[in-house]
Structures are given as C-alpha cells and as structure tokens.
Design brief:
It is a single chain. This protein is an all-alpha fold and 215 residues long. It has a single domain (2-208), classed as Methane Monooxygenase Hydroxylase, Chain G, domain 1 (Up-down Bundle), CATH 1.20.58. 87% of the residues lie in helices and 0% in strands. α3 runs antiparallel to α6, α4 runs antiparallel to α5 and α5 packs antiparallel against α6 (176-208).
C-alpha cells in the first residue's frame, strides 16, 4: 500500500513541476511580448493559461484522492496541503500572465517606450516565479526564503515605475492613456511577485512544518 502511495506522491510532484514550468513559460512569453510588441507571443501566453487551468484541475483531483483514500501521515499531509495551496497561486499567475498579454493585444503601446524600471520589474518577477518553482523541485529551503525576501525589490521597482510614468504624463499629457496601461502592467507584475512569494512560503511549510510569515 505504501509503495502505491509513494508512486502517487511522485506523480503529484511531477505534475506540480509540469504546472510550474507552464507558469514560467507563460510569464516569460508575456514579458517578451510586452517588451518587443510581439502579438504572437502574447497569443501563445493566453493559450498556455488554458493548459494551466487543466493542470490545476488534474492536480486538485489527485490531491483529494490522496487525502481521502490514503490517510497520509504528518509529513505527507504537509506536502499535499502545500500542493493544494501552490496550485491556487500558480493558477493565478497563469491568469495574470494572460491578462497582461491581453493588454498588449488591445492597448495601443506602439508609440510609448516602457521605462527601464518596468523592464527590471519584469525580469525580477520572472526570477521570483522561476526560483519559487526551483525551490519546490529541489526542496531548497534557503532559496524559498530568498524569494520571499526578493519581493521587496519588486515592490521598490513598482514604486519607481509608477514615478517614471507620472513624470511621463507631466511631460506629455497625450501619452496619459498609454502610461496608465503600463502602470496596469506594472501592477500585474507586482501581483505575480506576490503569488511567487506565496508559493515559496508553502515550500517552506512543506519542508519545515512552519508557515513563513509574509509581511
């Protein structure tokens, strides 16, 4: 019986890795699309969101099966409950990457160059998502804690980006609507960073049994 349970836990682990890879791909494609105005990449990111939704349902069903049929011990229960929490945040990352891509498709950003801080923000967010998944895959406690701490950098970049866009509007009011679109993009990046922090905090819980307090 334990061998079957261990095999199902391994399947759960692999499914989480697969879903994490989809999230990484979605946010990376979206960021590339925004910086290069590549509509095809934006559409690809939107399509990936559907795959993430399907993967979410598969993992949720597997977790419920493990909880109801196998009666896991404390360590396994932490892993399964953490998985249920992580897929919620992974799903939201997929949705928000898709929303970002839709902004690019429907908004007119062709005449406005995004700020250097917005570029840094996209790179920082991708780093957080990637490393939160890596922390889970490798059961890397210190990396998970580093992701949580790195959120301060993303928050600081959001403030700087907002100031950049306010100055742009002051210099040329005709770019007001486009600047607001970029501000919305920056806010989505900030939210995605928050979800990466949540994933990392559940990795900490899965490893230690202590839920990391997120400020």
């Amino acid at each position: 019986m334990r061998t079957k349970f261990d095999n199902q836990l391994e399947q759960l682990n692999n499914e989480l890795i697969s879903m994490g890879a989809l999230c990484e791909k979605a946010i990376t494609l979206t960021s590339q699309a925004i910086m290069t105005k590549d509509l095809e990449k934006a559409k690809e990111a939107i399509a990936i969101d559907k795959d993430i939704v399907m993967k979410n349902r598969e993992i949720e069903n597997l977790c419920l099966k493990l909880l109801l049929q196998q009666h896991p011990v404390a360590r396994d229960l932490r892993f399964i409950s953490s998985a249920l929490k992580m897929i919620t945040d992974m799903g939201r990352i997929g949705h928000q990457a898709s929303d970002l891509a839709e902004i690019l498709i429907f908004a007119d950003l062709s005449e406005l160059h995004s700020s250097e801080n917005l570029l840094k923000m996209s790179q920082a967010t991708i780093k957080m998502v990637s490393e939160s998944i890596d922390a889970f895959v490798n059961r890397h406690l210190e990396l998970a804690k580093a992701v949580i701490a790195y959120d301060d950098i993303v928050d600081d970049l959001f403030v700087k980006t907002r100031k950049d866009l306010v100055q742009l509007i002051i210099r040329d009011k005709s770019h007001g609507e486009q600047a607001l679109d970029f501000l919305m993009i920056a806010k989505y990046y900030e939210k995605i960073g928050d979800h990466a922090v949540n994933i990392a905090s559940w990795v900490v819980f899965a490893i230690t049994g202590v839920h990391e307090e997120v400020q």
